[in-house]
Amino acid sequence: KLFFTDYGNAAKVERCDMDGMNRTWIVDSKIEQPTALALDLINKYVYWLDIYLESVEVVDYQGRRRQTITKGRQIRHLCGLAVFENYLYTVNSDNFSILRIDRYNGTDVQALARLDNAKEIRVYHKRPQAAARSHACDADPHGMPGGCSHICLLSSSYKARTCRCRTGFILGSDGRSCK
């Protein structure tokens, strides 16, 4: 799945399949300006920052069990969001400090370091990503991803895929080759 935020005409947190199909709103109320998003891949939770409402919140992948992690004026200056183990990590754009927020006790916020002009944060560790299993976009015997001549996108499950073409090409009637 692909998760994303939008704060155009109607602010929301959404999800869709990797090919863009099955677009679903998972948060569409009491949300104004969601600017950063992080996923807990193990427990299937979506965290986001709302800088207008000055809050960090969480829901499960279906948009249920919504909770506020922390709220207050300090959220207004946060950008970027990452989750690892018991903590959320973010950057204060006012002073470029990296903050660690306990995701179970949002009042426990610690500044860890400062980085000039930091605007985003990522956690790199072997644990955040679930082990990959074989999927529909694995290379075929000819080395083509999922049998697609250009681009393979996972669809509704790891067993389904959609082929797409690079700019300037159109998908052939076989649903795999690009012309």
From TrEMBL:
Highest rank taxon of the organism: Eukaryota
InterPro entries assigned: 6-blade_b-propeller_TolB-like, Cueball_EGF_LRP_Nidogen, LDLR_classB_rpt
Gene Ontology terms, MF aspect: Wnt receptor activity; Wnt-protein binding
Example GO biological process: canonical Wnt signaling pathway
LDL-receptor class B repeat residues: 1-43
Coiled coil: none
GO cellular component: plasma membrane
One Pfam match: FXa_inhibition
Protein name (Swiss-Prot/TrEMBL): LRP1B protein
Source organism of the structure: Toxostoma redivivum
Lineage: Eukaryota, Metazoa, Chordata, Craniata, Vertebrata
Gene from which this protein is expressed: Lrp1b_1
